[in-house]
Amino acid sequence: xxxxxxxxxxxxxxSHLESNxxxxxxxxxxxxxxxxxxxxxxxxxxxxKNKDLPEFMxxxxxxxxxxxxxxxxxxxxxLSRHQTPRMSQSEYREVEIEVGTRLVKGALEANGWEPKEVxxxxxxxxxxxxxxxxxxxxxxxxxxxxxxxxxIHKACDGxxxxxxxxxxxxxxxxxxxxxxxxxxxxxxxxGGIEGLSRMVADSxxxxxxxxxxxxxxxxxxxxxxxxxxxxxxxFENFDSEGLLQVKxxxxxxxxxxxxxxLIETYQESKFHLRLSGMMxxxxxxxxxxxxGLMGMVKLFVRSGVDVATDxxxxxxxxxxxxxxxxxxxxxxxxxHANYKINQLKAKQLQKNGINYPMPWILSDFGNVSAASxxxxxxxxxDNVVPGDHILFDGFGAGTFYDVMAIEMGKS
Length: 411
Hints:
By secondary structure, this protein is an alpha+beta fold.
């Protein structure tokens, strides 16, 4: 297990937000010069430890929560999570814009880049605080107006959907543009920003309120140089049972047609695109509703194992074709939905003859949706050397999957 509190970690810079001086903010910057990748990840809000949950939940649920309803979150891999107080929509917006701006600047600093050098900013988010969020943080961080900016709304899979978009030339065509070809050899920032405390604040879902928290991460790299695509797959399998329902706080027609992708593309402006994923939305109007922990297991494990197996088998075939059958995945960066899901997924993969490390290293964040894979990658960045093969494994409500094997390059 990691330290109980993110704010207590070595190298985390802790301050308070200017937009709300009562909200603590912590950020850690990491870089690996050998492969030419750097980034930053952060959290904001009250650090609610497991022992504090009964009091916190009673406050949030206005006395309708009893201590017996506290989940055993340590068993699920979580020791704490970050929560902001209830605020107005405009207050949430200012807080999250400041967070996003600080995060982008932190990632730039970790890479030693100037803002004007960046050609692309790709951010996954489950429910943006406003439709102009990505453009606003890009502007405040000094990113060029003509740099490509893409919002990816695929729930917890958002950041890995962004990475696949940037890396996989076979899957990255949006409109008339192949994003991966367009971004190859250029400086890009990819990440996930999740203000989940805002999203679940009024849900009255006892599981969601305990599991989810705020978190964000962004890393910078040069596709084709510091990261090289090997194999990958993007997959959709709609959650028709509504096992994990998420309100679409972004444009989507809400129309499903046979043979049509669940992802819709919106051209917000010349240099701003939005990829919006279809969700099974709560009927009661709240932002998030869960059908219990077993519902999440049912939702993610079977399809998740199938997609990871397909990609791994493709990877093995590629290694044989390249004359390096002994090569293998060093570790997998897997979405931290909860520890039991990842344990079960690992066991099912082993039954398929697949065995690679899947480290659990986000115990101090709670489930932070699209931010979790980015944070997990950054926390392992110091252990990566040129030539390592890493498997990125994202999955999210909707249901969306993005799995890819990547070779770490040289700076």
